[in-house]
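Appendix B, Record 12. Input sequence as logged:
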Amino acid sequence: MAAEIGILRPPSEARSLLVRLVRNCPWNKCTFCPAYKGQKFSLRKTADVISDLDEFKAMITQKEVNKDFDLGPLHLWWRAKMRTAFLQDADALIAPVEQVVEVIAAMKERFPTLERITSYARANTLCHRSVDDLRKMKAAGLTRIHIGIETGADEVLEFVRKGVTHEKQKKACLRVKEAGLELCCYIMPGLGGRKFSRVHAEESGRLIAEVEPDHTRLRTCYVLEGTELAQIFNAGNYEIQDDEEVVREIRLFLTQFAHRQTNLLSDHRINLLLELNGRLPEESERLFSIIDGFLELSPEDKELFIAGRRSGKLRFLTDLERPAMREKLQKLLNEQDFSRQSPGSYLL
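Logged structural output:
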C-alpha cells in the first residue's frame, strides 16, 4: 500500500478512514507526549493526498468485485459502512484553508457515504484561523474538531510546555463553536502531579464550564518511558499521584462544570473508571455516584479493582461482585505491582 497513514487518531475514530494531510506535529514540545519525537513536521502536497484517496477508492472498488480482497487498514472503515473520516496528523488544520477545503471535497466526491469528517487541531492554530475560515471548512464537510486541552491551569500548561494559556484555549474553543462546528476537548487527569493537582482540577473544570464543548473526554496522564516528563520524574522533580488521588481529582474537576452542558466520556483503556460516561447536567448525580462508589470501596477492594483494570481483566466496579473474579484478581495482585509510582509503557 503506497498511501500514507499516520500512527495516531482519537479512539472515537477507530473505524474512520485516516487521511494524512500533514506529517507529524508542528509543536512537538509537550513533555508528556511520546509521539513524533525526532520527526520533522511537513505539509503534504494536495496532489499526493488526493492520490491516496484514489488508491483508497480503487481498493474499495476491488473489494466490491472480489469479496476476498484484503483491505488492510481500510477494513474496519469498510465494515462500518464508510461513514466517517479523520484528517491526520496532530494538527491538520494548520494546512492552508483552501487545501483543507479541496481535500474534503475530494473525499466526499470519492466517498459519498461520508457523514462525519473530523480533525485534531492545536488551540494556537485555531486562534490564527478566523471564524469565516472555520465556516468554510464546515461548509466543505468538516464536522468536528478535536482539541487536546489537557489542562486549563496556566501553571500546568507552562510545566508541560503546551505552548498555550487558559485564555488562548478558551478563545480557540469558542471560535470553533461560533463557526458551528462540533467541539471535542480532551483533559488529562493527573497531569499536574501532586503539586498542581488542585489547580489543575479547578482550572480545567472552569475552562469546560466556560466553553461547554459538545464532548469532554478524559485521558488519564501516565508518565511514559522515553518522554521528557519521565526524565523530570526520574530527577525527582515530579510526583505521580496514585489512582485514588486521580479519582479524587476527577471528582473536583467535575464539580466545576456539573451544571453545564457537555457529554463526559471516559472511553480510553488508560482510564480507571471506564463507566464514567454521561450527559451533563442531566446525569451528573449518576456520575458522582460512580466516582464515590470507587472511593467508598475498602482499601483491599480498591487494590483489586485497580489490578483488574490495569490487567484488562475487568471493566466496571460491579465486576468485583463475582467471587471467581475476586479470586483471580487476588492471585494477580500477589504476583504483580500495579502502582502508578514509576514510568509506564501504556500507549496514549
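Residues 128 and 172 are 9 Å apart (CA to CA).
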